[in-house]
């Protein structure tokens, strides 16, 4: 299991630990861990079996950040994000961070990993939909390089709400 912390070298001025999301694997630890985050964060959560789509090369990709659990137990998934890939475009499906681990840079690290993946796969752009009231996510995506590109009226249910469409061109 990848350790998310990188021990800073002597003299390293970086204050926050560097975060290293790992590729989501088709394992119960990753799939069930991400599914738990889905249940915590969304009113229409993806199940562990639907999340498997994000582990199929050429179809989708997922990244996870894990944190240590009880001694002897497997690390638990504290953040995850997924992206579906069609020809030269990526679509971020969801990014979710456990409430105990928010505002620590986990979400930003997951989005960066997805964008790096898009660049390596030579995709032209990455898009996503986000609830129009979800200020935290909209700020996170803007800071990562996404810009608003449109609005889908009544896109979400439970509760009904517009979606903002955001796009990031990959250079
Ligand atoms: C949105 C979410 C993924 C952000 O994750 P996070 O790990 O807390 O975000 P980060 O710590 O990486 O924050 C990166 C930047 O995003 C912005 N941001 C994050 N949370 C914010 C908040 N509550 N209010 C305003 N801006 C916020 C800030 O600009 C932040 O930078 P800063 O901490 O230096 O100010 C997290 O709140 C979450 O899981 N929410 C529920 C699920 C969700 O809505 N997912 C998005 C669906 S499209």
Question: Briefly, what is this?
Answer:
The protein is an alpha+beta fold and 171 residues long.
Question: Could you name the key traits of this structure?
Answer:
171 residues, alpha+beta, Aminopeptidase, 7 strands, globular, binds coenzyme A
Structure description:
This protein is an alpha+beta fold and 171 residues long. Helix content is 25%, strand content 33%. The structure holds coenzyme A (COA). The site of coenzyme A has 20 residues, from strand 4, helix 3 and helix 4.
Per the CATH scheme, the topology name is: Aminopeptidase
CATH class category: Alpha Beta
Sum up the overall morphology in one term: globular
The quaternary organization reads as single chain
Order of helices and strands: EHHEEEHEHEE
**Overall average pLDDT:** 92
Largest sheet: 7 strands, mixed
- Work out the strand percent: 25-35%
Structural class label:
alpha+beta
Number of domains: 1
CATH homologous superfamily name? Answer: Gcn5-related N-acetyltransferase (GNAT)
What strand order characterises the main sheet? 1-2-3-4-5-7-6
CATH architecture: 3-Layer(aba) Sandwich
Estimated radius of gyration:
16 Å
Count of helical regions: 4
Could you name the ranges where pLDDT drops below 50 across 5 or more consecutive residues? 5-12
Distinct ligand kinds: coenzyme A
- Taking the alpha carbons of the first and last residues, their distance comes to 31 Å
